[in-house]
Amino acid sequence: MTAVPRIITNNHSLLTHYQDLKKGDIVLGRVRLRPMEEHVLLDLSRRGIIGIPSFISQLCSRSKTMQTRLCGWAMIPDTTVIYTIHDLLTAVNHYTGKGMGDVVVKLEGHNAGLGIFRYRTIEDVYTQSALGHLPYPFVVQPFIENCRDLRVIVLDDYWEAYERYNCDNFRKNLHCGGTARPVKLTEEQRELCSRIIDMNDFCYAHLDLLVTEEEKSYLGEINLRGGLRGATITPEEYRKKIKSIEQNCCEKAVANQQ
User: Fewest CB atoms within 10 A around its CB: which of 28, 70, 165, 239?
Assistant: First the structure.
């Protein structure tokens, strides 16, 4: 008879039983990690331990560079990850060769619009980086004028979307002074979100979509969690849905081992 998997539900238990966990055991809920501890998720995955949410989605949520690697196909064309000054020199040649002007830089490990910067040219990015003012790694992408910014919350069969708007700041985040208004997603936008979620094994997600004047939608970023300012769902309803989704995933994972 197959042994019943151990289910870890908090960080204290995870640290206490870390070395004893076996293939098929389950870590239920997001793992709380400090910067540079992401290797824990890799090790757990290597050992066949099941993460709910998946370890790949947890890693992806923590890293804008990883999101770009995994979801670059859905992002603004020419979005790229810069790991070293050599990568940046390649980007300088590419962006300059295509006649691109303003660019946006996204720093690793920053949220709520606080790590987003706009530069007039890719050369300005190179200057700041070479002088030590931009820490590696980071993401760089073309700045698209007059883009709309949509936040999409997906909790299983519950979908909600709202537009974040700020006429005084290219950062549309509500934390940076933006306002919100509900929107209805197009079928194409829903399909894009669903594909990104499925490909990266998210059981629930917050996605940011950038919509151009030509009504082309691109992924800004994806995360397991995000702010609820601007959403109609209440924090209590949100927590209940998250708990229900995680519990259902856990029950399926246990049943699959019987």
Answer: 239
